[in-house]
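Running low. Invent one:
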Amino acid sequence: MIIYGTALLAVCHLLGIFIGDLLGQALGVKTNVGGVGIAMLLLIFARLYMQKKDMLPKLTELGVEYWGAMYIPVVVAMAAQQDMVSALRGGPVALLSAIAAVGTCAVAIAVINRMERPADDEPVSTPMLHDNPLLADAE
């Protein structure tokens, strides 16, 4: 059953690479744009969908969780292979996209924080010993 988790990862990876290539072509770049990230999102959505529909056995879920955890080092290794100096020399697109990404994350975090319900600020009242009629005689 663990092999099914690996198969799900492989399908998500192939779809992510394909969509990343299509996105690169649409942007006029001759490279994959975000394929690994798209694959990770597909894996997360597939796992959540399968859990909701009760189609994910425990062993398969363990395989998906393992590969989901392994994806982070893979993404870091792939990002380390990119040549940032040539990207910055190529134009301001890299700098503008970095600023846009940081700004988008800041706005998303602010929106999520504002959507959170405030906790009740009322203190919980605890009865005092002298309010208890059974303990009033003990004083």
